[in-house]
Amino acid sequence: MGEVVLVTGAARRVAGPLVRGLLRDPGVERVVAVDAVAPRHPLPGAEFVRADIGRPTLGRLLAHHAVNTVVHLDVAAVPLGGGGRAGRKETNVIGTMHLLGACQKAPAVRRLVVKSSTAVYGSAPRDPAVFTERTPPRAVRGGFAKDVVEVEGYVRGFARRRPDVAVCVLRFADVLGPAADTPLTDYFSLPVLPTVFGYDPRLQFVHEDDVVEVLRRAAGEPAPGTRTTGTFNVAGDGVLSLSQCARRLGRPTVPGPLPAVTRAGAALRALGATRFPPEQVRQLTYGRVVATRELHETFGYRPRYTTAEAFADFARGRGPGLLPPWRVAEAVDRIAELAAPASAGPTRT
After folding, report:
1. What is the C-alpha separation between 229 and 168, in angstroms, rounded?
2. What is the pTM of this model?
3. pLDDT digits (tens, 9 = 90+) for 224-242
């Protein structure tokens, strides 16, 4: 008998390719996909169960299917199928508590994979230049970042109570790619990008294909010489500054003081132009960069896409902005041509 894998958050975009990848593994017999919202994407070969992870039925589901591995995807910044911040927090935190309680009582469960976020580190002016997995969370004031901190705390408690279960926590940087649909992609899709005056933060991204592959590997048996238990930062190599991102998108920026940018974000959310949460304004002020050495050397995976390549793949699907780089280059060349005759004239002695 092969492994039975249960995937929560089946309506999330990452679930579709992850399920397909899991079912290609000869060691996986069945995949049970669970979500309170029906997925819009196909889950070929998987058994979909419409259920809320915050309900007691989850324990019976684990027992009925004799689940061996649980992949918890349903920790996210924005809700699916309507609902506000309160509902999202209930799913992130309370739902995770119920899931871990059900796993604790399920003797067949031997592996738990949790999709977390580098938001656990927060963003603040006195943060270290690079966060490692051993850096304690700092300046986490609320919102999704606080949810992630609480979720990881409950996961650590579960690991102490069930030392026989291999637990893997994956802290993903902001996910980009052609199909990515996140608050950050909303921001980058604005015709003009509001920025904080005097700041040019460093950012990291991870491609959606690498997200799927890391989750798939974490759900299976580790390759020889590697370890998939513990906590791992996941991001593409390299960094981009916010100004570089804006130029590559061809979108002009409008700098303003931090309070003004915060108010502008609130107004855009009220108008439905973006889902960008307040805490990510801090990220676009102070930035966030994480070390990925543990992912490369211990987990045994190096992302296929660098940060710049993940951003380029995302940008290709967004179309030219108001200031496409090629148009700016043409304008600069034209100005240089017009200035050349004047500079070549005779000089007076």
Report:
1. 5
2. 0.89
3. 999 999 999 999 999 999 9
